[in-house]
């Protein structure tokens, strides 16, 4: 038996089993203890606060983006001093004075800024509790942002024009509307145009409708009587300015002649639209259209965009005047057969002018005038044929006129007169083809009474239908 295996632990085993000796207090020297390096602490803080970002999916960029640009960008705080309109619309305001240029650029009424008051400490306010606040507070009042837009009524009229009326006058959308982009900047330059716009807008509001009642409810600070009074004021002020511009020479006033000329066109436009709004039945619109024609012949605007706009608008209504105009009405016809536009708009606002469609309206009106003249000629012809005596040889020649004129007799008294003339011809000549003429005319008149105008017009077809193939002589 090997006794080496039963021997005690070896030297290696003895070193492993030796217990660890802890240092005693006297072995420490606090003077030898030093502070840890700051770099290590900073590294530890960064590692704890900024954990390692997750590697994005996909192949790494060959040229990684420079994140230093985005990291250095500082977000600008929201302004608390913008104009009232921009704060309501939640738009960025440039805080320009007296009005925000952002509002003016977007054709929005800038309501200005809140009234500024001098800051006062709580101690000062408490000491003046027994005095009136109006005597202590220093308030800065702003001037009106637009000439003519001063009162609550004015702002209501202006808003109605911008939101409602300007959109129904053209097929353009709200983003590009000539009645906003062209008329409103001109109204801001010329006070008379602003009065005309507000007067026109006031006429368009119907307070008996739910929309009008809602406006009154949303504006408790005004009344229907106050709105009407303000509307009358704007109308009178607009007319005074219009007549004053006519008499004003080129070198008078602060406004140049170019603006005055553009304002005259704009005010005539507002007057014309006013007749449409009111439904004027006395032909007042024709006065304004004639005024435009005289002005455009003498002094057309220099601005091609403005010229194209007013030419299309007024010529559209000149053509439309032919639809209801009667030759017996006062004044000459406004349309011209060979009219050509001075300037064409980039995009048509009103159909029928630049595309030439409405140029057919004068032709239709000319045909209707010819028909009216023919109707008058029918009565005159019947009177002439009735003037022959019963045994006049000229009765032999009257059967052809009876056929032609009889087919144009729409009234029963006229038809009865034709019957009498045919009987007179029949009695003189004794020709029974007069009976065939009477049969054709009776069938034509029956179709007229039934309203079958297409068949009544074709009297040859009527003769074929009833089997009357004869010689009308």
From TrEMBL:
Basic residues: bias regions: 52-64
GO MF annotation terms: DNA-binding transcription factor activity, RNA polymerase II-specific; transcription cis-regulatory region binding; zinc ion binding
Region (Disordered) residue spans: 1-20, 39-74
Highest taxon listed in the record's lineage: Eukaryota
Listed CDD domains: GAL4 (cd00067)
Pfam families registered for this protein in UniProt: Fungal_trans_2, Zn_clus
PROSITE patterns linked to this entry: ZN2_CY6_FUNGAL_1 (PS00463), ZN2_CY6_FUNGAL_2 (PS50048)
InterPro entries given in the database record: Fun_TF, Zn2-C6_fun-type_DNA-bd_sf, Zn2Cys6_DnaBD
GO cellular component: nucleus
GO biological process, one term: positive regulation of transcription by RNA polymerase II
Domain Zn(2)-C6 fungal-type intervals: 82-110
UniProt keyword terms in alphabetical order: Nucleus
Subcellular location: Nucleus
Biased composition range(s): Polar residues: 1-13
This protein's name: Zn(2)-C6 fungal-type domain-containing protein
Species assigned in the record: Verticillium dahliae (Verticillium wilt)
